[in-house]
Queue: 3 jobs
Job 1
Amino acid sequence: MITAERKLFDDLYAKASQHKKVLLLGCGTCVTVCMAGGEKEVDILESQLKLAARERGDDFEVTTHTIVRQCDDEFFDEETSRKIAAADAVISLACGVGIQFCSEKYSKQRVYAGVNTVFYGATIEQGKWEERCAGCGECIVDKTGGICPIARCSKSLLNGPCGGTTNGKCEVSDDIECAWALIVKRMKELGRLEELSEISAPKNWATSRDGGPRRIVHESLLLDEGAKKNG
Amino acid sequence: MEKEPTIIAFCCHYCAFTAADLAGTMRKQYPTNIRIVRIPCTGKADENMVLRAFVEGADGVMVAGCEIGSCHFIQGNVRALKRIAHAKKLLGETGVNPDRLEFYHVAASQGPLFATTSAEFTERIKQLNAGGKASPDTKSAEGSTGDV
């Protein structure tokens, strides 16, 4: 999933208090799972803004709404459009994708980012999320025991570990596991350690961000012009 | 004359709520400022439940649950402690004094403790309303001795 963290309250308050009527728009998918921008977090922010406005003597209205996904056109239904139109500004608590999609769709509306999008990650235990994928466009984890060196090695090395590994930890921080130490351990367990003696060639980063913004097209799923017009 | 504060007390059905009932049975008086909301376990009390109480006009919120190790749902009170600590942080961000929110451990048999805790918390909120600082509260979650 895409993980995010809510922006600092003072930043959000500064944005909200510039307007008379603010809609807090939550997203029911990734940011709900990582507890950054789902219905619950939207409700908490609503309460906080109302309390802070009372404390600081400001006067603005806060409303809330949460949809299943903000990165998909079909979930912006009539009710959502009505609520967005009725507000002077929207604080979207979706990830960067959802915020942009909402902003593109309602191009005349002021849409603020309510969260900072951080990484593609997994829930490693309740309340903890960790980066697992860098979205590089060419997955190699089948060669590395199911552990991604691009996302989990601080240097994204394809032939590791580097000299900075110490007792299974990365030189960047003792809190970071050395991905290549994990890979070697896993490959040993799998009886495939020999496979690591093969040197990986330099990666073609054109499939990643180096190739510019990316797009996926499924020809078989595309609608013809007539179907698009009919919705 | 100072307006009487409104205090919401979210009380666990298995302990503090029974203790409040016992306080009445024992003719122990506690301030009429306290409005009790019975919840199945303090583990039910999440951050927004207490924030909403403040939004709706509460001057103070106390959450009262079982002593550590006595939760009917094993871990509910432990989880509540963490959530209330987080709610205090969220309250502080808004400018509301986090001392207006407190967690207490009150066992079902501790009717008199519920009465004294309620009185102390009410006094704290009155002082805060008057612009003073919260007085140190020896029977809060950190310092509860639990004497009946």
Job 2
Amino acid sequence: MSEVIYLDNAATTAVDPRVVEAMLECLGPGGDYANPSAVGHEPGRRARARVEQARAEVAGLVGADPAQVIFTSGATEADNLALLGAARFHRERGRHVVTSRTEHPAVLDACRQLEREGFDVTYLKPGPDGIVEPAQVEAALRADTLLVSLMHVNNEIGVVQDVGAVGRLCRARGVLFHVDAAQGAGKLPLDVERDCIDLLALTAHKVHGPKGVGALCVRREPRLGLVPLLHGGGQERGLRSGTLPTHQIVGLGAAFRIAAAEMAADGARIAGLRDRLWQGLAGIAGVALNGHPTRRAPGILSVAVDGVEGESLLYEMPQLAVTSGSACATTSGEPSYVLRALGRSDRLAQSSLRLSLGRFSTTAEVDFAVQVITSAVARLRSIAPLPPA
Amino acid sequence: MTAVDLRYGDEVRRRMASLAGAGTLAPGPDVIVGQAGDRERGAEVILQLRVAVEQVTEARFLAFGCPHFLAAASWLTERLPGASREELLHWDWRDAAAVLAVPPAKFGRLLTLQDAVRAAAANWPGSGAGTV
């Protein structure tokens, strides 16, 4: 086992060696490194072919047509392009947006920007299990609702939303539907046609691809207009200017192709590891699962550990790479807003751990993690005042 | 290669490794207690001090809090033996902050420690309050 056990795959993953190999073919002399827009020469056309192959691989993972795929720098940009781009383009249709309180900051902050631009945003509160029921969405819809945004898999607690039900509901009401699938794509089946998703944000680095690249799938039939965020060379049908990073895009495509081919096997194995981890931790008194017990992505386990302080718990476990609260907000020191939205107290939110598994996680690592956490909790509790009766 | 967590200085790391001073004293008429904080607010401490001949002779702590807070409690239990009631009443959290390089965002937690020291002083034998 390596020096530190990596259990933070919801933050990012190691790049699969097969993906690295594909990316390397696009970097050095003799490789397909040319500008894919320079189709006037052979190297440019080869690079363009690699980009288009990757586009087809991305589309293939989510049941889309390759023409729907716009490459971006990641899910954050894809979310921003979807929300800001669609709202600005269609602002005359309505100024109301519906989302949930447990969305990623890429969505929440984009919604706050829309509020500054005069939109009205409804933030739905999930149940204690983290689920936003389709009926809640339906009840929030108004005559002027333009857009609903709901994440597929929550990045902190791993619960899976019924995006298909919400998508069908939105489609029936003529409301645009955006899904942040950064955590779910490649791990659970998604289909933009079946699930009636108009805008789907994707990223590579959560599924053993490289950081710095993602995609937005945009509905084509009927065509959905967007106002671009970036202006320049007019790449990606004018929706995302900037030289296409061939090696990154090829890495995204390879990661998604592998994820599609191995989703069932990987999902079953990783879910088994997650359940083994939970069974081990559930034996510690005062440990509780955060989020729905069964509607979960395979790789994410979030637990509240009563009777210990979160920062000290992390300190006591230098052998483990795990996070306390939201990975995107851990530097703030504030309790996780996701866990608080579920009704967890500040203290339990602060003493929660997110452990996330990936393709390279092993049974030995899981068993070691249980030992380390059990020991750390026992040490901290041994020096703590007795909790109030 | 292991990267050191730069949020914590050497003294915090040293004290977290041993947690010297953690635990309790056998109850008795010569043991006074100072308690402060609230775990719902992220920091709670119980100080137990054995007192003889107008001086603290022994100190222990139980604490719930971040590594800086636990390290400060540990450091304090080594500083308090020899202290008089008057010195407890005037103990200042800034001493611990300087030694342990506590970041300003956590100064409030050290005030919790100061409250516990002063609560113990208020329980000093002969001051009218109780012992355990």
Job 3
Amino acid sequence: MLCMEAVQEFNLPKVKGTTVQELPENLYIPPKALLLLLDVFSGPMDFLLYLIQRKNLDILEIDLVEITDQYISYIELMEDFEYELAGDYLAMAAYLAEVKSRILLPREEEEDEISDDPKAELIRRLQEYKRFKEASENLDAIPRIDRDVFIASSKLPEFEMPKPKNKYNKTDLVFALQSLLDQAAQLKSHTVKLENITVESKMKLMLEELKSRDFISLPELIKKGESKLAVPVILVAALELNRKGYIEIVQGESFGEVYFKSSEEVVH
Amino acid sequence: MSIKNRVEAILLASNRPLNQKDLLELMEIHSSEDESQVMSAIYELQKDYEGRAMNLIEVSSGYRIQINDIHSEDVAKLWEAKPLRLSKATLETLSIIAYMQPVTRGDIEDIRGVSVATSVIKLLIDQGWIKIKGYRDVPGRPALFISTEKFLDDFSLKSISDLPSLPELPELQNITPELTLQDEEQEHPAQEI
């Protein structure tokens, strides 16, 4: 409201048609009044619309010359106060001045086309702006979340877990590391290889070995590094050789060492 | 455990709108008989809340239970921050995007007769009310803005067609008498035939 009053006060000398170059010194102007004016209007269109509606005029009935003079005089007034005006206000002033000059200047008849009617164009722009200004007011009136309506919610608040105090010692750290390493070890993958061990190959090996020596003891038969699978295969191979009569199995005493030796009777 | 109470529990706990599909999935409902029970549960809850502090409404992304706007003054005091106040410029920009989408900054500036401040666009994007959807195929490739589902949710709208209708643009014909004359001259021969 403050700014509108200010505007009307300033307008008085202008309406009378006398160009007042300097403001009366005794006139008190709230220092922020004009700045407030710029805040109240969303732009030059809004301001222009205000100037028209202040006179209860329909947009269609505007006296373009008068409105243009009014608008420009406000702009000049504000410049007198050295307020830095947004370029858009100045651009509108220039546009209005152009429209005004085109209306006042005589033109040739053929120029007078619909698309070339500067007043019609300005009115169109004002009408177009006005409908969106109204639409924005309607939009603002709609119940808005977190302003008019709030989501009703029984959503549980996020509980903050109490942070554990730092009470660890060196041993805890070592244990933690160890369990991590254990875990890592368990996670290590290992490939199962299929061993290609046959009874026949072991039989052959045993006969080969018995060529160079007379006896092989049972522990010697199973060499270091043999796989678990190889142990029964070797035993089966020894028993098989014995069954076929290629070797003999001898034992010196009860519970004594078992030896394998070549059968002398068999001719290779 | 009635379906009605289950629907109410889920809507209250969710803190965001849930649509029919969300509800059916959460409740693991597959039979069409139970489906219709969910819908009637929503209707019954709406009836129950009449005259209470809250209501159940449908917005773009689903159903939500909200506190009636008559209590906004009381409730708003729970938060230190004041609700966001939108400036005229922001509201006008948002309206033009909502009604005319997709629009470029230039389109908005043509209507408002003032350059669109970057802060306004940023605020609207930060609120999640507008987003960029493509670029117009003209020199400079300006961004095209559209409104979002969150805009509809936050303004309690089911769809963009629920916006208050845009005031009509008056017919241009009566602006200048010359125009009507021209129109008549053009129309007369046509009527005679």
